[in-house]
Write a structure and sequence with these properties.
Shape: globular
Bound molecules: alpha-D-galactopyranose
Radius of gyration: 22 Å
Strand order of the largest sheet: 9-8-7-6-5-2-1-10
Oligomer: single chain
Length: 412
C-alpha cells in the first residue's frame, strides 16, 4: 500500500495521485499467488454463524491446512443484517460481533474474508452494498476484513433496465470500480474477488476494475460432470492471469463426498495447473485423512502457488483425453494427463509438444515416485475420470528445452 498510502493523507491530494496510479491497482503483494483458504458456501450454504466460522478456523490450524498455505477464512452470503440509522451495515444475529470474530481468526494466524453485492440485495436476498460502497468498505476495514467477494446478483435487475447491453455493461464496470476505489481508500489491503459468473469475458477487464481474481464460470457443484465442465472450459484463458490477478473457476468441492478419489485428484490437479485460487469448500472439522492429504499435497500446492504465476493451458486433446501443461519458475513443467472417460484409458505425453526437445526427467506428483529419464514420450494408463500429474524437467546435461518459463502474451 506504500505508494497509495502516501496518496491519502488528505482527500484533496488523492485525486492527482490516483490519476497517475495505473488502473488503481491494489498493492502488488496482494494475491501475488492465487489466494488459498476456505469459504463457507459450498458446504454450509446459508447455515453459517459465528461458532461455525470459529470452528473452521480452529480446524484449519489443527488439520495442518494453515501450515500448507490455506489462510483465508471466507464468510459467504447470509451474514448481513440491517443498516443502522447512519446507513452503516450490521451483521445479523448469527454474527453478533464481526470485529471480535476477525480478532479471533487473526489470532490464529489466519485472515478473514466477507461477501457483498454491488446490487441492493445479495443472491440470497440479504443487504447489498449499492449506494453504500464507501461506507461498507470502511466498515469491513474497521472490522479487520482481508478479502471481499463481490457478487453481481442484485445488480442484475437494474442492469436489465439499462437502455442497451453496452449501458448494462458500463453499469457493472462502474459498480466494481466504485467498490475497488472504496477498498483502496480504506488503506487496508483487502483482496478484491469479482463474482459475476464469467459473463462479458470478465477476464479481459477484471484486472482493470481492480480485481485480484474473477470468477470465470457459473457455480460449481460436487459432481464430476460439473467440476469437469468448468475446469476443462478454462482453455485459452492463461494469458489473462498473472501475479495479483487470477482467473477463478470457483471454489473446491474436495471432501464434500460427491466425487471419488480419482475425481477429486482431477479437481486438485486441474486447479493447480490453472493457477486457480484454492478455497476449500468442505467442513474442515470433519475431514478424512484422504481429504486432508488431497488438500495438503505439498507438490500440488507448489504447482498452484508457483512464483512465476503463469497459468497452464491445454496442449492437446484426443477424444475424452486431454493433456495440460504449466510452465514453472524453475524451468520445469507440470503436466496433467486427464482421462474424462469413466473407464481407464492410455494417454501419451509427447514431451516435444510440451516444449522439451531433449531427454527429460519425470516425476509422478501424486505417487511421489521418480519415473527416471525419458527420451521423447511417456505413455500410461490413466484411471477413469482420473489424472496422472507429472513434473517434467530437462535432464541434467541436456540444454535443448526452452530454458526460462514462457508467459503467454499478457492481456490487460
Ligand atoms: C452466487 C455465487 C456463489 C455464492 C452464492 C451466495 O450463486 O456464485 O458462489 O456466493 O451466490 O448466495
Amino acid at each position: 500500500m506504500n505508494g497509495l498510502r502516501s496518496c491519502f493523507p488528505a482527500a484533496i491530494l488523492a485525486m492527482p495521485c490516483l490519476l497517475f496510479a495505473p488502473a488503481l491497482a491494489q498493492p502488488t503483494k496482494l494475491a501475488s499467488t492465487p489466494p488459498m483458504g476456505w469459504n463457507s458456501w459450498n458446504h454450509f450454504n446459508r447455515n453459517i454463524d459465528d461458532a461455525t466460522v470459529r470452528a473452521q478456523a480452529d480446524a484449519m490450524v489443527a488439520s495442518g491446512l494453515r501450515d500448507a498455505g490455506y489462510v483465508y477464512i471466507n464468510i459467504d452470503d447470509t451474514w448481513e443484517g440491517e443498516r443502522d440509522a447512519t446507513g452503516r451495515i450490521r451483521s445479523n444475529s448469527k454474527f453478533p460481533d464481526m470485529k471480535a470474530l476477525a480478532d479471533y481468526v487473526h489470532g490464529k494466524g489466519l485472515k478473514l474474508g466477507i461477501y457483498s453485492s454491488p446490487g441492493n440485495k445479495t443472491c440470497a436476498k440479504y443487504e447489498g452494498s449499492l449506494d453504500h460502497e464507501e461506507q461498507d468498505a470502511q466498515t469491513f476495514a474497521d472490522w479487520g476484513i482481508d478479502y471481499l467477494k463481490y457478487d453481481l446478483c442484485g445488480l442484475r435487475d437494474a442492469m436489465k433496465q439499462a437502455p442497451s447491453p453496452e449501458a448494462a455493461h458500463a453499469m457493472m464496470i462502474d459498480a466494481y470500480s466504485k467498490m475497488h476505489r472504496a477498498l483502496v481508500k480504506t488503506g487496508r489491503p483487502i483482496v478484491f474477488s469479482l463474482c459475476q459468473y464469467g459473463n462479458d469475458a470478465v477476464w479481459t477487464w477484471g484486472a482493470s476494475v481492480g480485481g485480484n481474481l474473477w470468477r470465470t464460470t457459473g457455480d460449481i457443484s460436487d459432481r464430476y460432470s460439473r467440476m469437469a465442465e468448468i475446469g476443462f472450459s478454462q482453455a485459452g484463458l492463461a494469458k489473462y492471469a498473472g501475479t495479483g490477478h487470477w482467473n477463478d473457476p470457483d471454489m473446491l468441492e474436495v471432501g464434500n463426498g460427491g466425487m471419488n478419489l480419482e475425481e477429486y485428484r482431477t479437481h486438485m490437479s486441474l486447479w493447480a495447473l490453472l493457477a486457480a485460487p484454492l478455497l476449500a469448500g468442505n467442513d474442515l472439522t470433519k475431514m478424512t485423512p484422504e481429504t486432508v492429504s488431497l488438500l495438503t499435497n505439498h507438490d500440488v500446492i507448489a504447482i498452484d502457488q508457483d512464483p512465476a504465476g503463469i497459468q497452464g493451458d491445454r496442449v492437446g486433446a484426443e477424444g475424452p483425453t486431454e493433456v495440460w501443461a504449466r510452465p514453472l519458475a524453475d524451468g520445469s513443467k507440470a503436466v496433467g494427463l486427464f482421462n474424462r472417460h469413466p473407464q481407464p484409458m492410455e494417454i501419451r505425453a509427447d514431451f516435444r509438444q510440451i516444449g522439451f526437445h531433449g531427454p527429460v526427467r519425470v516425476r509422478d506428483v501424486w505417487s511421489g515416485k521418480d519415473l527416471g529419464k525419458m527420451a521423447a514420450e511417456y505413455r500410461t494408463l490413466v484411471p477413469g475420470h482420473g489424472v496422472v500429474l507429472l513434473k517434467v524437467s530437462e535432464a541434467a546435461g541436456s540444454s535443448s528445452s526452452e530454458s526460462a518459463p514462457k508467459r503467454p502474451t499478457e492481456q490487460r
